[in-house]
Amino acid sequence: MSRIRRARPAAAPRELAEGVFWLALGRGLLRSSNVFFVRSEAGWCLVDAGWAQDAPAIAGAAEHLFGRAAPAGVLVTHVHPDHVGALPELATRWEVRAWVHAAELPLALGDARAVRHYAGPLDRWVILPGLRLSGRARMERTLARSSLAGAVQAMEIGGAPACLPGWEAVLTPGHTPGHVAFMRSSDRVAITGDALVTLDLNSPLKLLRRERTLAGPPWITTWSWPAATASALRIAGMTPSVVAGGHGTPVSGDEAAAHVQEFLGAH
Q1: What end-to-end distance do the CA atoms of the chain give, in Å?
Q2: Which of 25-29, 83-87, 132-136 shows the lowest per-residue confidence on average (mean pLDDT)?
């Protein structure tokens, strides 16, 4: 097992439901993201991996919760840099590969055609034009540096992930082509990535107020808004008892139920 910078988590992971722990990472609305640790009879599993600089905080939180035991697996909701940034370092440390939906693999491997095809507005209007201006060779080198080759593998949809017995992987495309959420069948705890989050990233006013609500992913980084809306409605329609999204504070119990009904009623 290789060495990694270690840091005790700035805030201890918080238990949301039996065996499900939440760690908030980063500061500021544009740099914050959530990761989750799930304990089961298979050991424990990490869901998502924050930004690249979050590896020490994630490793510290894991050690705080589980000692030096490596995870039984790592699951990724989608391949965006605020959800897979620390993955290369953590995968090397724990000697594991992360599971992603097969539709995410071209993005994960830095395939230029896939990046162009599945780009959101921010990529189409700003990032890709900037890369093109830098020249094809430099663009390819930049994409190669972001590749997760050797750190990811394709998961199967339709059964429980090996490291999450009792959970269902739910395909929720739209934000990205192979976005996946995870729901525990026994109590409907849902880890939703960016398919359904608890702050409206598309409303500057609600963001300034830090208003807790249910919303779909940020439009500016979403590949297909109609598909993303359908996926958000699918997750909400499963009436989760806990909504643990990739951004915002998780909600549970009566608060989750009220937000779910409000969200469904608005659509």
Answers
A1: 48
A2: 132-136
